[in-house]
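Researcher: Next entry in the queue.
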Amino acid sequence: MKLQPYTNCPKRSLNQTIAMATLAWALCTPLCTPLTSASAQAVWPAFLGQGSSESLEAEKLPLNWSPGKNVRWKQSIVGKGQSSPVVWGDTAYVTSIQGDMKETCVVMAIALADGQVKWTREIESATPVRSNYFQSRSAPTPVVDQNHVVAFFETGNLVGIDRHSGEPLWERSLADETGVFQSDIGLASSLAQHGPNAFVLIDHEGDSYLMAVNKATGETAWKTERFSRKSYASPTILQIGGKAQIVCSSDGSVDGYSPETGEQLWTFEDIGANTSNTPPAMLENMVLVGASNGMQDARAVEARESNLCLRIDGDGSQFQPEVAWKTTKATTTFASPIAHQGLAYWITTAGVLYCFDLESGDLVYRKRAGEQCWVTPVGIGDRIYLFGKGGETTVIAAGPEFNVLAENELWDIDSIPATSSGQFAGPRSGKGGRPGSGQGGGSRPTESTSAEAASTEDAEGEQKSENSEARKPMSDDAIEAARQRGENQFADPVQYGVAFTHDAILIRTGSELHCIATGEESPTNEEASP
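Model: Structure for this entry, 530 residues:
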């Protein structure tokens, strides 16, 4: 490993688990971090809020918003990005990529109070590659702790930054160390953290591995090899057998590792198409696994057998994963399954929400809930927030009865400017894509109508007769041709990632960060620039 000096300035029962979740929100229980004066500032320190020490109250968070209502501020972000914001104390941190060839990696610190930029750090890309709407851009979410921000980019740049000053602490190029990443749509794995280390999951068609890096020095604590696979999933920290484990659900396996040594403690390989989802962090000894049909349902057969709940039995030294239950109807896209108050939720590509009993796997309900979601749903108190890809957020009541509490718009669809041909895949059709104002610019980005037709569902979520069982899997050439037509492309604006604070919701689109809070009538710095 070579560290580069920085030179570029510019076994608990299910009932006990549910009881814990009622006291502290599913993604915000202090399972991974002791509650100290420092960790008390850990509002949303990692992807999906992993490691938060804060109990958030739904009553203090916004329920309704629109472009001119309950928006505290809106801030432009340098470049483009799809990562989620993270929060420590009074500051949010976001990453992005700038330049036609992804020449510059960017980390920004933004004040929660007014949206003003505290500092911006630019890092020269280790492996410049063309930036376009067919590949993810700055998709990995960083981690933050009391003193450090650690950010990872699909260019191979891994950097540590002083959280307070924005000054660089160390920098590495994983592409130089282990080879350029081999992946069709870029690398998207977010970082996880536990104790002094951040964890980097590199799963691609080249040499794959899980690595622990010291957040203060950038030095490798350990590195564990993995079999090569095409996947964009992120690791998570779960409590298994009373101790923290790194759990990776990534195409072809679900694996548990020791965060101290990197030793693989268990594996489950009777699975496939689990390419992009992250298990929810609140559960102990249980892993929810999401799997996607893929483009044009190319992996529908595998996905139908791979959306499931694993139960991990063990005595602290040996562990055995077993399938507790599975669903053959509910599949995912980029949004992971979640668990909240004894229920498990899956949302499909068509915006159909499946709710299951977490213990038995019995279907509680299946309802069309809004748009397709790329953001993982968030459960807080008596609410579930469903952040639609096209700017609509549906808030439903938590619990066994489906009840819509609010439907919110982040932007006015008529305000979206016209775009060059080919930037968007085509006009929207149906609730899963939200109809635009016409056939021209102003329609929001969406997957192509042919891709949507490939996995059509009725209003209750049942697969229609022309489902994937009647179709043959796509060949590699057919998948590449669909990609070139623009299907499943990453155009902007899209709701890509979120973070929660005590009284606000941060929503990240490709080039903006929105702060939603009750009592704000309009953005105070809507025209601000970094």
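Model: The radius of gyration is 21 Å.
Researcher: Noted, moving on.
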